[in-house]
Prior knowledge:
Elements: E1 15-18, E2 24-31, E3 34-37, E4 46-53, E5 68-71, E6 76-81, E7 84-86, E8 92-98, E9 109-112, E10 115-123, E11 126-130, E12 139-146, E13 158-163, E14 167-172, E15 175-177, E16 183-189, E17 198-203, E18 206-216, E19 219-223, E20 233-239, E21 251-256, E22 260-265, E23 268-270, E24 276-282, E25 291-296, E26 302-311, E27 314-318, E28 326-336, E29 339-342, E30 352-356
Parallel strand pairs: 7-13, 15-21, 23-30
Antiparallel strand pairs: 1-2, 1-4, 2-3, 4-5, 6-8, 8-11, 9-10, 9-12, 10-11, 12-13, 14-16, 16-19, 17-18, 17-20, 18-19, 20-21, 22-24, 24-27, 25-26, 25-28, 26-27, 28-29, 28-30
Amino acid sequence: FHGNGFFLFGGMNAFCRFGSSGKLVPASIQSSSAANCVVPPAATNSTVEVTLSLNGGHDLMPSSSPLLYSYVQPVTLSSLAPRYIPSQGGSLVTVTGKNFLHSDSSSVVCLVGGKEAPGVVQNDTMLSFFSPSFDYDKQIVDVFVSINGGVDYTSHSLQLGILSSPKLSAVVPPFSHELGGGYVTISGSNFFSTTNLTCIFAQGDNFKSSYALFVSSERVVCQVPPYQVEAGLVQLQVSLTGNYQSMDESLDFLYYPVVTLSSISPSVGSTSGGTKITVAGTGFQAEHQTYVCVFGRLEANFTATMAKFVSQNKLYCHSPPSMDDEHVPFSVRTLFGDLIFDVGSGDDHNLLYTYKESILIVSMSPLSGPLSGG
């Protein structure tokens, strides 16, 4: 209770009454403007008027409006997600249970490892909170919920794991065409096999995500999601919770336009190789990319030669030698280290390069003629 004049009778004979016919409950006068009392139990859900007396219940202190107290069913907790969060804090945690709607929006408090965090009720069976930060990791903490401002907490708790935030050192390859679909390997430390382990590709407030495959505490693998972004550069993160947080450690990752091929000229050359081929298409980039021309299928026997960038629509490369006369699929790929990656060209135009046995000239006839030619 908050008011004034609580020391009027010395505060030694103060009582509270819950309901017009309720029993008197001893009150404790804290100061001339504050008093408290312990709420007695009730048999059913109900809302009762609460009154305060300073003289053993003979007179009731007036109030500007009726003071109403609601008895509600106790909150029960069943689960939370994610079950593990990084120690840096700021992770969105969702709690499921029952009887959350009996609270008002400002009175929900979650006690997480002894630290209070404001809760937001979504519906009668779900609420959420943002985790506080912790100066320790690799520990399990208890989560309690209060719907009356932290006065009463649930009698039982849910357990939440506190882990170190992932540290990232490298991603291979550090790029993908905008269609995605390929896989990247991320190296670092503090990776943990959670059900929400996720790779997040973010540019500003926009992001795409994909589930991460846990390999070890120092390595995860993710499939690259499709993503069309301005300028192509995004920040790659590994999240233990599946939630995007801008402050998480990240690596640069490049999305580039899909390469499309329209033609190669010439499309026929000698089995001895060395034919200069002009590749026409779209999406070629001078920066961040090293292209190779691939003769044959990557999943079968193939050979590749380095390509020279000419423009966004043109490359040059030279054909490698071949043992036989044959038709082989032609494609353009990108090179990173010793690995060859798809740039989205594939065999979508069914471009073929044909090898023919080298021509050998053995004679010429006649060996002379008039100045007029012909």
